Amino acid sequence: MSFGEIYNIAGAGMHAQTIRLNTVASNLANAGAAAENPDDAFRALKPVFSTIYNQTQDGKAAGAHVEVAAIVETDAPLDMRYEPDHPFSDEQGYVAYSNVNTVEEMADMMAASRSFETNVEVMNRARSMQQGLLQLGNK
Description:
Largest sheet: 3 strands, antiparallel
């Protein structure tokens, strides 16, 4: 595997985790959002990752990188709160709030952040190895 492939794989991982962090940020920003009706309520977003295998000329697997296949809305139930005085309350007095679970989002944010940092470390190690190889020629 070449250094270029290592950079491409780590870069794809960083890109995927950036999208994951963006969806977490969007979810947290809309965590307490109320809607006039349940159909308009914000639903938490989640990225769906897929693995793309790299093939060599002889057909063997030569590594894999991640891609974001889609960003989907979660099917968790909305948070229906009884607030009859709220301007968005329905006939029964309930207000539809987003289905964002802030604890889950914070855990997802920490995992995405650590994964991003790991990919940065892979790039740094590959760069260090390249520099070491260049210095071998000078000795």
